[in-house]
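Sample 1 of the test manifest.
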Amino acid sequence: MKYKRIPLYFILPAVLIYLSKTIIPILIGFYYSLYNTDGLARFIFVGLENYTRIFKDAQFWSATLVMIKYSVMMVFAGQLISLLLALLFVKRGAINNIFRTLVFLPVIMSMVAAAFIWKVIYSYNGPLNVILDQLGLGFLKVGWLTDPQYALASIVVVGVFKGVGVGMILYMNALLTIPAEIYESANIDGAKPFSLFFKITLPLMIPGISIAFITATINNLKEFEKMLILTNGGPVDSTSTLGFYIMEVATNNLWVGYASAMAVILLILVATITYYQNKFFDSRTVNY
Amino acid sequence: MIRLLAALLVIIFFSGPLYVTLIGAFKTTTDIIRTPLSLTRLTFDNMIKIFSDSNHNIWEMYRNSILLTSISVCSVLIISPMAGYYIARSKKKRSELLTMFFLVGMMVPPQITLVPMMSMFYKLHLVGTLWGVLIVYGLNVFVLILFAKFIVTIPTALEESAYIDGASTPGMFYKIILPLLKPMIATAIIIDGLNTWNDFIQPLFLFKTFKTITYGIYVANSVENADYGYILGFVLLASIPIVILFLFLQKLFIDGLTGGAIKG
């Protein structure tokens, strides 16, 4: 660099805060995972015992399963709908703009706010069931959040409501990066809209798709806030994801050491899945 | 046409809940149950109840939310451009290392940091103090990385000539770089402001006595069990400020919240 080196104090505050709120807590978390502790007074060293307990914990495995179910549902439903919305409303225009605003509105609301709206809507006497009744579809009424069969899917709906706005914008921008000439030359060659989409549009969107997929996956695997507000782990733990189970164990039972060990496992899981997702998308990236 | 059907579904799914909330906030619970969609029998009862609730003072909650958000935005605006500048103008290896360093924070599950932070806060008596707030909200890693990436795109020519003219680094930063960062600053205010205002988990676990309005929604529910009107009223009051801001600054919001991910 031709000019003076930038003084360290430019970055010091950021680093200090980051250490305090992220790095040090992570390290403390690792440390706690080796103890039987409540985070305040009780500290009994147990080594890797927490970790071995995890593998024998039936609820850990069911929570992991629920987490995977939730993430798969969320990512596929969410990404598909985001993509469809992007395709529908990508063109300029006042009407499209209104629709895009509508879709994006839930994104800026607080998660608590959105969750409570749906909590009211989903309740047995809530608007959803009442409207179904009024439409003569009363037989479709269920306990959306109280029936183990439907609770998780109901939460996915809330996730879609809150999240697809961002996905839609991401996919829209990915669409807009495709140069118009490619479509023109494809049309000249007589391509049909369907194959046009699958063979040209979609492959060229892969960088955008990968960012959307990967961030969505990471966020969904860690998810617990919706479950906390909507079902508190759900009828018979049907909505207790790993993320939720960890929070429950840590804050309800104060088994902080055990919870920290599970959090470490979750971290490893998230990192691994992210790595392979990244590889998958990298290998599929095309350049025309 | 499929487009029409899709548009209809979008309207129902995305605005339905919002409509129900908007009018539900002004209806009694029995009315919400009987006629969730109609505009008849609107009442201010819920609002009166909320504003006169002595256990949960909504003005205090608004004040706390505004306080937290202001502190956060100010802090983020002070430290992020400087740190971003440092990273942007560092040699490749150092900047890559720093970027990775900060990216870790974005990938880590909050569960792993939340409980240790709770312990930290209680043991160090940080609950409800300014330091506590600064630690939790003083830095926004996403914003920091956005600044770093943005500043990288600024050509160094201006700084180089300023240096030759004998300018100091802080002076250079203040007079040359900062004015160029204005669009980014707007984005940062929106991203961090939104993040802090909407945050619920951290106030719930770390700032118990310092109630924010999002915390208020959560507590309102447990107290007034199944009083839908009350709950929706609270939700409305918590969301209206941002929704109004959003409707006026749409482009800024959308670009800010997604622009970082696109420019990659």
